[in-house]
Amino acid sequence: MTEPRDFGWWIESTDEEVYGPVTKTTLADFLQDGVISANTTIRHCTHAAAAPLVDQGLLTEVDWGAVKRTGDTLAESWPRSKRDRLALGESEVECAYHRRPAILTCIRCLAPYCVKCQLRKRKGPTYYMCKKCQSGIFNRRFLAFVGDSILINLLPMFGMACVIGALGSAEAAGAMVNIVSAGSNVVFMLRDPLLGGAGPCKRLFGLRVVRHADGVTPLSYGQAFVRWLGHLVPIFNLVDASRAYSDPLQRRFADGWAKTRVLDTPGKLEKVRARALYRLQRKGIEFPTDTVMSLEEFARLDG
Fold first, then answer.
1. Strands 104-105 and 112-113, how do they pair?
2. CB atoms within 10 A of CB 99
3. Which of 24, 38, 78, 222 has a Cα-to-Cα distance from 275 of 20 to 30 A?
């Protein structure tokens, strides 16, 4: 059985750059050639914590007393060719979505995925999810926002327009419009905590908003107010909304201010993982995933 730990490793060099992903075999070759040392810090793509190579319990056959203990030459040794770099990370497992070697494992769908499914790595934290999962969550968040806007803001105003037509009193109509508009804005702002962590359309799309502190507890009313502030500034609100796709932790700026995270509901997550497991079974891949960090752990990450 292929283990997730056989591939998908990121190496944190002494030059403060992150190299990878690489396979366990590549790590062994680098160690033997003196490119990395026993104390070189590495992190698996399905975990948040990095640790020295010697403490990972990975290369059990190595005599750690006989290898270099400090320093690395990754800056000089890392291949310049994209093809050569990719070869260092390609595993014997096939991607769940393409006929290509897998290089990473997604913490959401739990599927091994190839470079075609990988989001472009930025400087800083690496992505924890495949492109399919990252974009899927982003699209559902956008649709949930649009749906809640229509349901909570536009429909009441449409109903009010019908009432105004029946009343025929401009003075009464103006007062009612102001009352309904103010009320719908308050409900829209607080829709997530009012309904236990997810507004009506978030719940429909299998999403929930939790506190960054524990990754489980629904957001508070104060946090909902802070998240809502990001929608008030023209132009910035578009930048804020789009950031959730490009951020490795899928945060809007407002999520950072409010210390909240948007996650799948347990039911939605179970369906996503079942579909990925079906794909793997069709490819004849047996792939244990019980050591992958949970989404609640993911929600508690900083970066």
1. antiparallel
2. 8
3. 24
Residue 257 belongs to some domain of the structure: yes
Average pLDDT over residues 45-63: 90
Whether residue 122 is found in the same domain as residue 222: no
Closest CA to 257 of 226, 299, 303, 294: 226
Give me the chain's average pLDDT, please: 89
Domain encompassing residue 260: 133-266
Q: Are residues 165 and 256 in the same domain?
A: yes
Alpha carbon distances (Å) from 31 to 56, 113, 210: 14, 26, 41
pTM: 0.88
Residue type, 128: Y
- Kindly state the tokens that stand for 224: 């909902």
At 112 the pLDDT is 94
Question: What residues contact 285, with CB distance under 8 A and at least 6 apart?
Answer: 2, 93, 94, 96, 112
Buried b (16+ CB within 10 A) or exposed e, 244-273: bbebbbbbbbbbbebebbbbbbeebbeebb
**Structure tokens given for 15:** 């030059």
Asked if pLDDT for residue 60 goes beyond 90, the answer is no
